Amino acid sequence: MPETNFRAAARFREFWTLLKSSNFKSVPTFYFLGWLITLFIILLSENSIFTSVGLIHVLYLWCWYKLTTAIDQKYRPQAEFLILMFFAIFLLDASLLRSLPAVPAPTLVFLSGLQALLLAALTLIFGLVLIHNTQTSFWFYLLTFFLAMILLNLVDNEGALYQVIVQLILLVFLLRRTAWLELLTKTECWLYLFLLLAAFFTFSKIEPFAAVPHNTSMLWFGLPRIFYFSFKMYLLALLLKIPVVLVYNFASLSRKLKISSLFQATVPQFIQLCMLLLVIFFFLAGWQAEKLRLALVTKFEEMVSGKNAAPAPVFQFPLNSDRSVQLEGYQPLQATSRLPDQGVMALARLPSPADTSAGEDYFIFLESHDDSNRRLLNFVKLDTLFLSAVSEEVSIFAASQLTAYPYQPSRWESYIYDFSFLKSDRKLWIFPFAILPPKPAWSVSWPLTNGNAASPEWVKVIDRELLQRAPVAVGRVVAPLVDASSRAGGFFAFDIILLPQLSVFTPTLIGYILLLALVYLLVNAVVVGRMVKFGEEINRMIVQKFNQLKTGIREISAGNLDYKVQIEGRDEFVELAERFNVMGEKLQESMAKEREKERLEHELAIARQVQLALLPRTLPNIPGFQVAAALQTANEVGGDFYDLLPLDKQNFLFTIGDVSGKGASAAFYMAQCISLLRFSPQFSRDPQEIVVRLNKYFSDPLIDRQVFVTAVVGSLDAKTARVQLVRAGHTPPILIPGNSAKSIAELHCQGLGIGIERRGGLFEKNLKSLSLKLQPGDTLLFYTDGLVEAASLPAGGLGQAGAAENAAAAFYSEERLRSLLQKSRGANAEELLRILKDDITQFYAGRPLVDDYTLLIIQKRQ
Question: Pick from 859, 861, 862: which is nearest to 628 by CA?
């Protein structure tokens, strides 16, 4: 097996080594304690974390986000390790939940603490899974919070269909957190596929909540249930992503094209068909619900007006100003607000000698006015007589029975019923988007079909099996419900129910449906079949031309640069072939240029040795001082330089400078500067006079006008510790006082760059000298701009993108230098030089230097 197939094991070993060698104190303690404290407060309080969002919950989410981000950045835990840990800890938690009913009360206190620790570990691990290999913000955690809130409310209310919908949303949401699978090899993908299949089916069969009642607490039901659903969806997301990775990374081009044609033709058609069926279903449900609403109102009005014989008694009651309702045989009801024009009222029965059972009946009511414009409430008891009368007025397309029942939706679901375009506050309204009817404690029903008495025996057998499944609501009418408690949000529902039975459809209708399905399949097969054949022919041509290009690549890689690819046609492959043939010719040219480049690099290496030989090999020993220096070029040769010359036993001349540009041209003028500076003490020891002479030389018309030099030239009297220096356009030196109470400061003095001003008058006028005396421990740092302007560029470098990529560069900056010097106060010259070189090396992180940099340090000993 290839070595690359063991990358997962190698990642485990790397992570374990990092874990053992790391200091856990580097993880922010504040966020860890904040997350742990807020989590335990939420768990140990009996209120659900998702009941209301308060300050404690926002603080918990923030600490969770900061802690997981810090751990991920520091330790980079592997996704396989996190999944394995989560799976093991949840199995332990599941065994704890299953043993919960048999646990005595004293032991429950200990188990509650253990459960809280397990949930804390699961929360932390799941957070690390969510942010693994992804850019995650605090808003992502907030979105996770609200998804969990919706999921928990759906679990509490047993909305099976809505649970499935939210789980699908969660699945899509988690699919973006599986990017780490793209790094796996082919062998690892197949291995992980089988392992994840086993883990998914094992996880799905755990069912640890059978013994735990809903809404007990967040500790024993809320968070464990959320983790169960979320992790199961994450495992499913991994199972769906692995085949995609296998196709993207390892499938051949022909197989990719076949799969692509499948997803472009068959799958979208299937999705569109499902969406079309869903739209048709909701249209029919809305149409049937509107028919039912009109039938309810029309039949009630006919019964009130007395046009037809009423199948049930109608009660009329004058509505008084005190909004009280009193029907014979029922307890009075006092309405707390204005009654709706239409609705359902629940009245409690009065006990009687014949019926001592307590209970209530439901009446549909309608407001009307008599001849004197007095408000009347008309009541009809909701029973089978009324429903049978209503069913005669309804023209139904497909239904099994009509059911009426009081309906109290969950808090989140009631918002849907409050939509203004669906609801009329004073009357009955339709709700066509109901699919699964609930199982109420009280209901009354009336059949809308004759059943399956005349159906064949095989239809009856299938019907008995189908009836074990849930019925479907194909139309709902909702009415406001008024009862003694006057609770807000109460509703009464009239549902048109379709039982999953074949006997609902007549043989003629079934035959017609089968005929339509057959016609659809035949037309679809003919059209799609021809399109697929056409697509396969295109794919074959693409693969054939691709193979020709692949053969050419193999020939070129084998060294046959004269090979030519011949492809007929005028498509992109022809252009690729032409470019490929040109590439062979260019490769031959490039090989010749490469040989020439190797020759030039050899000459540049020699030039680098010559340039470095110009710099002082060893720095002179200055009594009472310690000096250190270093130079690093971006290319083989550069324009930076430094020097330290002894004038006598106690006087020394030092310099540091930078010639504009890089490469051989800058190195040539750098050599001239070094030679002139070493020759200048014969005429003058004054740094200002030396710089003036240098400017006169570089102002010569024979010198390239594009070349200039920035430099600091100074003299040091070792006996008096006095330094005199001039700055010709160079970066200001930095003084680091030996007294820690004094601040680090830059030494500013005027001066133009050497060779910029050719006439000389303006240069001498702006050149100022600076004199200072060094105290014990004082340090002078001289550096070139290549240090503070060092840039860690993207992989493409500056290139032709220029400004765009330069904007993405991270610069070393003067702030970072000053901060490092502040932290390194007290270090001697050699130590400070090592610290600076290590920091700039760490900053570049293996990337090539963008500019030369030079350091010169002079320190007065303590």
Answer: 859
Closest Cα partner for 809 from 853, 850, 854, 855?
Answer: 850
| Burial (CB count <10 Å: 0-12, 13-18, 19+), residue 480 | buried
Residue 592 pLDDT level (bands cut at 50, 70, 90): confident
**DSSP class of residue 147?**
H
Q: For 131-166, how does the pLDDT look when each residue is reduced to its tens digit (9 = 90+)?
A: 766 666 667 666 766 666 666 666 555 556 666 777
- Residues 708, 698 contacting (CB under 8 angstroms): yes
How far does CA 2 lie from the centroid of its chain?
Answer: 34
- On whether the CB atoms of residues 750 and 766 are closer than 8 A, the answer is yes
Residue 43's contacts (CB-CB under 8 Å, 6 or more residues apart) are 116, 119, 217, 218, 219, 223
Asked whether the beta carbons of 474 and 285 are under 8 A apart, the reply is yes
Q: Rounded distance, CA 182 to CA 634, Å?
A: 36
Better-scored residue on pLDDT, 807 or 713 = 713
Half-sphere exposure for 337 (CA within 13 Å, toward CB): 11
Output the pLDDT for position 683.
83
Q: Tell me the percentage of the chain whose pLDDT exceeds 90.
A: 12
Whether residue 35 contacts residue 67, with contact meaning beta carbons closer than 8 Å, is answered with yes
- Give yes or no for a contact between 504 and 498, defined as CB atoms under 8 angstroms apart: yes
Any idea how long the chain is?
A: 862
CA distance 323 to 332: 11
Q: What is the pLDDT of residues 691-703, one digit of tens each?
A: 988 888 888 776 7
Closest CA to 96 of 83, 108, 86, 82: 108
Report the relative pairing of strands 791-792 and 810-811 from DSSP bridges: antiparallel
Per-residue pLDDT at 749 exceeds 60: yes
User: Which stretch of DSSP H or E encloses residue 361?
Assistant: strand 360-369
Between 733 and 225, the higher pLDDT residue: 733
Beta strands at 625-632 and 853-860: parallel, antiparallel or unpaired: antiparallel
b/e sequence 780-805, b meaning 16+ C-beta within 10 Å: bbbbbbbbbebbebeeeeeeeeeeeb
Q: What is the pLDDT of residue 31?
A: 67
Of all helices (H) and strands (E), which one includes residue 773?
A: strand 769-773
Q: Which residue has the tokens 């239809």?
A: 459
426-440, pLDDT tens digit by residue? 588 888 778 878 878
Residue 654 phi/psi, 5-degree rounding, is -125, 155
- Quote the strand ranges of 597-728, DSSP E: 625-632, 640-646, 651-659, 709-717, 722-728
Residues 6+ apart with CB under 8 A from 90: 122, 203, 206, 227, 228, 231
* Exposure string for 667-704, b = 16+ CB within 10 A, e = fewer: bbbbbbbbeebeebeeeeeebbebbbebbeebbeeeee
- How far is residue 186's CA from residue 249's CA, in Å, rounded to a whole number? 8
Edge to edge, what strands does the sheet with 769-773 contain?
640-646, 651-659, 709-717, 722-728, 769-773
CA-atom Rg of the chain in angstroms = 43
Distance CA 658, CA 854 (A): 9
pLDDT tens figures, 384-393: 888 888 888 8
470 secondary structure, DSSP code: P
Of 751, 755, 748, give the one whose Cα is nearest residue 768: 751
pLDDT in tens, 619-645: 899 999 999 999 888 777 777 889 999
The CA distance from 273 to 282, in Å, is: 14
pLDDT at residue 512, as a whole number: 76
Burial group, residue 226, by CB count within 10 angstroms (0-12, 13-18, 19+): buried
- pLDDT higher than threshold 70 for residue 461: no
Contacts of 656 (CB under 8 A, 6+ apart): 641, 642, 711, 712, 730, 782, 783, 784, 854, 856
